[in-house]
Amino acid sequence: MKKGLLLLTCLAILSGCWDRTELKELGIAVGVAIDKDADTGNYIFSSLMLKPASFSTQSNSTTRPFEEVVTNGKTIFEAIRKVNLIFDRKGFYGHNKIILISEELAKEGILPILDAFQRGKEFREYVYICIVKNAAASEILASSTNAATILPAIHLRNLVDHTDIQFNAAKIDLLNFYKQVLASGINPVVGVLEFEKDRFSKKHVKISGGGVFNKDKLVGYLNEKETRGYRWGKGEVKTAAISVPSPVNEERFDTVEVKNVKSKIKPTIKGDEISFIISVNGEGIIAEQQSIATFESQAERLDYSRKIEGKMKKIIEKEIKMAMEKAQKKLKSDILGFGNALNQEDPKTWNKVKKDWKERFTEVPYTVSVNFSVKTTGLMRGPFQSEY
């Protein structure tokens, strides 16, 4: 009896892995880019595939550690399968770090593109999506300028990650893009990658601003200040550095390190009139002082902090209004989710207005309420200064 049970257990284990794919047979993709073939209208699918041999200590250090594999197809899934016709390993996308989509395709709508990734579970849901502006997506994907890592896709993923500590750019992953596209009363804003030239005319990749969608179609862009306004309104600021004119000397700047931001959108309904309040609460510390001043008393330090708080409130309010002006008047896209907030607060009212919300949103009134506190100056008596 025991022997029979042992035999059945062994068979079950063996049968569970008979068709597994060995690691040495996989081509691990770390980044993909999708462009459109101008002649055929097909998708051009570019994959960065790892070359494990190039990481070996026995290999030539100049060997490029990845292979850029380019295929095309009428659908994304067709293009993915064609990778196996020209690359000697089976494509595996479970460790893919980023999906780049050309501006041209984004304007046409990207749900048909993402369907293959989501339906077939080829890609994990936390992979970042970015729009490529003024360049081919494949060109950005293979660029390695200003990169500390030897893999361009990891470099791009890191640029998106860094929006946690600077918020001039937007970011979104596959899961949250789907959530916002399929939800009512909210539209997504996607990270944007493009080439930029430095003062030596050297071209490098930069993440900047945000690509605004109406459902799954790209309708325009937010610049850096507008993107900051969007992120203030969404409460998507973990930490940031904001420079403000010094209360002591307006020709110099002091820097506030933002430590925490929370926001809330509250609808107000009075009969047929609907309005919204965008409430933002934040705090930070003084990280740098250019102005030469010494605060001799607690009252002087407190007065200085209150003036900095006032300047921060004005900046936050101004940038939120810049984002809303662009969203309402030009792009006509509910990026902060006014409609979604209304749906959560009063589903009955939302059901009455959701059919014409796109038009109604462009005229809906709102107010911005900001509370920002400086917890500590980080400097007890003022900046360092010479005694001579």
From TrEMBL:
Domain called Spore germination protein N-terminal: residue spans: 19-194
User: What superkingdom heads the lineage?
Assistant: Bacteria
Q: How does it sit in the membrane?
A: Lipid-anchor
Q: Does the keyword Zinc apply?
A: no
Major localisation = membrane
Q: Name one Pfam family in it.
A: Spore_GerAC_N
The record lists the membrane-crossing segments as none
Q: Where in the cell is it found?
A: Membrane
- Sorted alphabetically, which keywords does the UniProt record give? Germination, Lipoprotein, Membrane, Palmitate, Signal
Looking at the record, the residues that make up the Spore germination GerAC-like C-terminal domain are 208-378
Q: Which PANTHER family match?
A: SPORE GERMINATION PROTEIN B3
Q: Which family does it belong to?
A: Belongs to the GerABKC lipoprotein family.
Name of protein: Ger(X)C family spore germination protein
